[in-house]
Amino acid sequence: MTQVSLGLVVFALTAVGQTSQPAAGLWPGFEVSPHFGEQVHSDTFEPDVLVHINAPGAESFRADRPIRVVVFALPNGNTTAQTIGRRMEPGLDWHFDIQHIGAQVRRLREVVTDANIVVVYLEAKGRSWPHWRQTHADGGAILVRLIESLRDTFKGREVTVALTGHSGGGSLIFGYLNQVERIPDWIDRIVFLDANYSYDDDQGHGEKFLAWLRADKSHHLGVLAYDDRRIRIDGKLVVGPTGGTYRKTQSMVKRLGRDVELKRTQTDRYERFTGLGAQIELTLVNNPDDAILHTVLVEKNGLIHGLTFGTPWEGKAGEFFADRAYDRWIQPF
């Protein structure tokens, strides 16, 4: 993503703030998507990061509302198109039907009225954020520049950034956390969608989360995971004796619980730990059948819940681990 293209986007959003919509109804540097009138912009942030920005259509963008940038780090093995999702048809790759981040964001735009929601898909070349970090010695510094450049794209407006991702996408978030001394206040939400594999007390992740949460009551930390300790593929355990997101979430509960009171709630569906007035929400889905729920957590309104828990919008756009609340917003192709 070059500075020239960033400048085009900045100009576009400034123009939106001054008039009802830019000339010809299109933000400079963007093109109109064939789906729902959205505006999209794709670019490359060197080295080896594919960036795809999806913003509300020019006519639906509200200049009197702040911009909420949702940075979504892709899971291992998935393309941006597959992560956005589309209506299934015979012969279509199953990866198009397991996340539906595009449709979930559209559902949020339909319900949430206090912000313009912009989603940024970040795809590592090679389709693996853990591998990208291993092959870029200065990866942490690159990620800091990337996240800051995305925020700077919307200069001149009130902007908050949510960091989220699925599966290996969590590696991007932890790569960023490892590089910064403190999480900046303009990041208002961090949500791991079965993606907290890299959580590590020894790297000070718990301390950084706590300092950031205490700095502003608008900051929220969320985890959606499940009991993956006994899941198998071809008869073999998928995670080792110390791995998996269930154990990592328990480690987070233990560490955060040393400093703040975490309330435990148990239902037939999940075990949940909440604290700091709902700023913290760590959810572990029960798994008595030892099923693989890795993508189901996302498909069943995972992103919708992750971006709304602890706010007045919680439960209004969709309930976590319930039927899809976004079906009408799935794009046809």
Instruction: Count every beta strand, where a strand is a DSSP E run of 2 or more residues.
Output: 13
Unreliable stretches covering 5 or more consecutive residues: 1-8, 10-24
Supply the helix-strand structural class: alpha/beta
Residue share in helices? Answer: 25-40%
The CATH topology turns out to be Rossmann fold
For the largest sheet, list the strands in their spatial order. Answer: 1-2-3-5-4-6-7-8-13-12-11
User: How confident is the prediction overall: mean pLDDT?
Assistant: 92
- Strand content bin: 15-25%
Question: Which helices and strands occur, and which strands form pairs?
Answer:
Blueprint: H1 3-18, E1 31-32, E2 39-45, E3 49-55, E4 67-73, H2 80-84, H3 101-111, E5 116-124, H4 129-135, H5 139-152, E6 159-166, H6 170-179, E7 187-193, H7 205-215, E8 220-226, E9 232-233, E10 236-237, H8 245-259, E11 262-266, E12 270-275, E13 280-285, H9 296-299, H10 302-306
Parallel strand pairs: 4-5, 4-6, 6-7, 7-8, 8-13
Antiparallel strand pairs: 1-2, 2-3, 3-5, 9-10, 11-12, 12-13
Helix pairs in contact: 5-6, 7-8
Description:
By secondary structure, the protein is α/β, with parallel strands linked by helices. β12 and β13 form a beta hairpin. An eleven-stranded mixed sheet has the order 1-2-3-5-4-6-7-8-13-12-11, sandwiched between helices. Strands 9-10 form a two-stranded antiparallel sheet. It has one domain: Rossmann fold (3-Layer(aba) Sandwich), CATH 3.40.50. It has ten helices and 13 strands.
